[in-house]
Amino acid sequence: MPGPLAFDEYDSFVRSLGFLSSRQACALIVAGDEILDNLLTHGEIGPAGVVVLVRKRASGLTLGFFVESHPDFAAFAQVVNSEPTPPPRFNTGQRRWRGLGLTMCRTIAPSIQHRPGRDVDRIIMTIDVR
Question: What span, in angstroms and rounded, lies between the C-alpha atoms of 63 and 50?
Fold first, then answer.
């Protein structure tokens, strides 16, 4: 689902999951749309598209995104997985804020793991919405 239609497809997918409450679906849509936006903005969705996994457990929800490996993802993962998370900052050259989406995702999902791989890069979020 590459391209702008990915948001509609993702949102429809989440809303179709009968095991989610309305609140849980909203949390997944907010967090997932931000991840999709980053993947599209940085060109990390290859010809195979993106695969999304949602799993509900007693401890919360797991949201996973799986995409073909991208050369810049490993470097990004190393930075973003380090603690503390870099704060949002204004990029004067682009005239926009950077890092707000990651901060928002960290608020919704206390655990976000960026796992680079040889063939597949993974972003796994654990969301505590019961």
Answer: 13
